[in-house]
């Protein structure tokens, strides 16, 4: 199962386990709520999808790496308590609340979110002293005498034995109490996630050309060679930071993340070419102004790597426009709802109350790790703009403030429309560029369908990207449906991409 399918299964499990009857009681008995066990190689995104599920479903997330715990911290510390039995006093041993269980209650108290996911990583690497406790935990949802609160589902994860020397294979009894989901690395699935996370376009271009370098595990006489999706994502963060500072990416720096010398060196060489293509083709100018100017130098005879890099740069630039438009439109919807309620109720006082509510909700969602990057920025902008509006309303009467609200909203709405128009223009310019260089001069339908693999890649990426499709559906006048025959199946795209590689 790929990571996206696993994410879907976790969401379905969450919906099923948290389903309630008309009295508000959970339909599925806790004893039947089997914990999930995600097993897969390191770095494929097991932890990342838990954060995504929590953010998208609006539940809290408490996560622990179980190998960091001793029996005492997981189960609780013993203490002596006096009890009376048959008229006699006895000293008995009881236990404090498990640190893990206590963290769930702290999350509920801090965020106000009463339902969530308890995620325990490396569960198949527990110490010998803790191993006997895990069966009770998986079956009864308890550590010691304390249960996981109702409304919290348990998801665990671990690596196969071949990737971790500390792995202890689950026995039959344990396996019979969990739902095991085996996850494999798959580039096409990770790519959708990477686009949303803003992974550096040079990395995306490199992996599009050389998918075999996306995930690689090998043990040699020189040691382990490890390349994982997590490594590429973390390397992307450093790469963007180095670019801001003007620092050089060397082979040694790449090897810190991409622990295979051949792949790391290959990427650094590609990065140098990628930057050369950026300067040569002026993608930013094309998207902003549609000004291609003279024929692009040497493009007709460019190789596969160069052409795909240019198209990837085009797609990356467009995606920035689409995400910004999406954020701005979600922000203006939230602002509209606030101002509408303010006009219906107590004006300035209502705005102040709703500002406080937004800020508190944002803090709770942040503490519960229930926000993705895009939603986080929407909240931040909404809160910031409401603070501006509150400042405008200080010391003026309600009638004047009502006018200030209307003027404020009009200004913000205008900015959003301008952002949308820029995105529409960029998309139109990009399509014009692609048609100019990747379709025949005769624009008959038959010949358009015969367009090159670069156009197939361009259109297919637009049609599989959430933000681009949202924009095209809501705003765009650009007709990309005429290229639909190019995308009959994903196999068509892969076949054409393979053909153009073979031509080089």
TrEMBL record:
The protein's GO terms of the molecular function aspect are: ATP binding; ATP hydrolysis activity
What CDD domains does the annotation carry?
A: AAA
Q: Which Pfam families match?
A: AAA_5
Q: Which domain of life is it from?
A: Bacteria
Report domain ATPase dynein-related AAA positions.
35-176
Residue ranges annotated as transmembrane are none
Q: What is this protein called?
A: ATPase family protein
Organism this protein belongs to: Catonella morbi ATCC 51271
